[in-house]
Automatic annotation (TrEMBL):
Membrane topology (UniProt): Multi-pass membrane protein
Source organism: Winogradskyella pelagia
PANTHER family listed in its UniProt record: PROTEIN-EXPORT MEMBRANE PROTEIN SECG
Low complexity bias spans: 100-114
Keyword Zinc: no
Family the UniProt entry places it in: Belongs to the SecG family.
Keyword Protein transport applies: yes
Region (Disordered): 82-114
This protein's UniProt keywords: Cell membrane, Membrane, Protein transport, Translocation, Transmembrane, Transmembrane helix, Transport
Function, in words: Involved in protein export. Participates in an early event of protein translocation.
Protein name, UniProt field: Protein-export membrane protein SecG
Compartments where found: Cell membrane
Pfam families linked to this entry: SecG (PF03840)
Record field: transmembrane: 6-24, 58-80
């Protein structure tokens, strides 16, 4: 398993976790923290900490995603299996020869020049 594959798997996991953390939050204050009684001024069971945890985890996962993407970019060229055959200039395909005409020339431009 190459380093790029490992980074790709980690990127997918972190992106999924980031989506889950963002979906748990509610921008109007009615997310996970409000379900524990944080709707009013009273705070039961550390509702403020739940909001802080979700906010910090969002920033951490977003930063981790960017770092993983940049690190995976460095490993793209290192893998031997990522070489493109389309860009190889060593192997050139030769054009088949045109059939000779009556005058012996092989191209129509030479025939028109005569």
């Amino acid at each position: 398993m190459s380093a790029f594959t490992i980074f790709l798997i980690l990127i997918v996991i972190v992106a999924f976790l980031l989506v889950v953390v963002i979906m748990v939050q509610n921008p109007k204050g009615g997310g996970l923290s409000s379900s524990f009684g944080g709707g009013g001024n009273q705070q039961i069971g550390g509702v403020k900490q739940t909001g802080d945890f979700l906010d910090k985890s969002t920033w951490f996962l977003a930063t981790a995603l960017i770092v993983l993407i940049l690190a995976s970019n460095l490993t793209i060229g290192a893998g031997a299996g990522n070489e493109s055959k389309a860009l190889d200039t060593e192997e050139t395909t030769e054009m088949p020869a045109l059939p000779a005409t009556e005058s012996g020339s092989t191209s129509s431009e030479e025939q028109q020049a005569e």
